[in-house]
Design brief:
single chain; Rossmann fold; about 40% helix; hydrolase; DEAD/DEAH_box_helicase_dom; P-loop_NTPase
């Protein structure tokens, strides 16, 4: 199905053509028409499936169908998203769709001064893309008013739930009119997301671009069993052997990210960090340097798992598996986008095997296991025998008893 069949306004069709869009993606086929008719939607769509166009194009079309003057401090469309990176990305993408119209788009987030954003709000914005916390700050200071909002989009709704934004979202939506159109997009579906949709949407339609928590078919998944203390060595070996030119690698903690960067520097491999101890400016520079190929490796914690849109990214490495199985889907969603091939490589220690099992249950299949010569992991039986040899009868200390018990439980 082509975009040309939608009978869009000439300004929007021209922008769609300029973006190189021809055939609609699955989520666009399902969402654009009902959204254009004013229906509330609950959409299951991951990043990289064309979801931004799925909600932005029908909203832009309706705004052009019912033109209004831009009013100072009163946006017509509100798009809520959990992170600064997502807000910036969404605003830039929507600007490309609105480039031949007079509609204005603004991204708003924390980490920068309120005054600059206040000036833009006062000048008048038609489409406001914001993180919940920063929007609340402006509401308290009466820099923005939501009483004339006609369209609301909740993007990455599952992530907003995970980050504890649901109460902020509910507070914000109470400031909007009851008669509004609300579109809720979520990469994963859960009881919590369903409950959120039931409380915020009216007679909504459910659309889905894929099965729940399904990963892109263009991504190849592999697992390397590896001792925790040897992960950095394996990573360096794979970079050299496989000629990985550009790699996004996820660690579970900031300390692990810092240590990996230190070892990469020692190996003379350029890298950048993106985690919670870095300022917004530093994170932006790290992502920009990675996108422009100034650094070979971007090391990130969960803060970067959503919203990163890096064209041509082939490799995502899980240096540590995420604590939540759902976050695996979000992490590897950075590769294999828009039909391109991608590779998701996970390093799994003994302690992470339960997390791996949870991930495989979530995505519905067993991930291929690979081995690298020189990085073999001993069997659990050998480990338990070695522990037993070092314990004299009747003298087993509590710490060793705990190790043996844990080993049996994981066997």
């Amino acid at each position: 199905m082509n975009f040309s069949s939608l009978d869009l306004a000439p300004e929007i069709q021209k922008a769609v053509d300029a973006c190189g869009y021809r055939q609609m993606t699955d989520i666009q086929k399902q969402a654009i028409v009902p959204a254009r008719r004013g229906m509330d939607l609950l959409a299951n769509a991951q990043t990289g499936t064309g979801k931004t166009a799925a909600f932005a194009i029908p909203i832009l079309q309706q705004m052009l169908d019912r033109p209004k003057e831009t009013v100072s401090e009163y946006p017509r469309t509100l798009i809520l998203t959990p992170t600064r990176e997502l807000a910036e990305q969404l605003a830039e993408t929507i600007k490309s769709y609105a480039q031949f119209t007079s509609l204005s788009v603004m991204a708003m987030y924390g980490g920068v001064k309120l005054s600059g954003q206040q000036k833009k709000l006062h000048a008048g914005i038609d489409i406001l893309v914001s993180t919940p916390g920063r929007l609340l700050e402006h509401l308290v200071q009466c820099n923005v008013h939501l009483s004339q909002v006609e369209f609301v989009v909740l993007d990455e709704a599952d992530r907003m739930l995970d980050m504890g934004f649901i109460s902020d979202v509910q507070t914000l939506l109470k400031q909007t009119p009851d008669k509004r159109q609300t579109l809720l997009f979520s990469a994963t579906m859960s009881k919590q997301v369903d409950m959120m949709a039931s409380s915020l949407l009216t007679k909504h339609k459910v659309v889905s671009a894929a099965k729940k928590n399904e990963t892109a078919v263009t991504v190849e998944h592999v697992v390397y069993a590896i001792e925790e203390h040897r992960k950095a060595d394996l990573f360096l070996e794979l970079i050299e052997q496989e000629n990985w030119f550009k790699v996004l690698v996820f660690t579970s903690t900031k300390a692990q990210a810092d240590e990996l960067k230190r070892q990469l520097k020692h190996a003379k491999i350029t890298s950048a960090l993106c985690h919670g101890d870095k300022s917004q400016g530093a994170r932006r520079r790290a992502i920009a340097d990675f996108k422009s190929d100034k650094v070979q490796v971007l090391i990130a914690t969960e803060v970067a798992a959503r919203g990163l849109d890096i064209q041509g990214l082939e490799y995502v490495v899980n240096y540590n598996l995420p604590y939540l199985a759902e976050d695996y889907v979000h992490r590897i969603g950075r590769t294999g986008r828009a039909g391109e091939a991608g590779h998701a490589i996970s390093f799994v220690s003994r302690e992470e095997e339960r997390a791996l099992n949870n991930i495989e249950r979530l995505i519905g299949y067993r991930i291929k296991r690979l081995t690298m010569p020189g990085f073999d992991v001993g069997s659990r039986d050998s480990l338990l025998k070695n522990i037993s040899k070092n314990v004299r009868p009747g003298r087993t200390n509590k710490a060793t008893q705990t190790k043996i018990k844990r080993g049996k439980n994981k066997k």
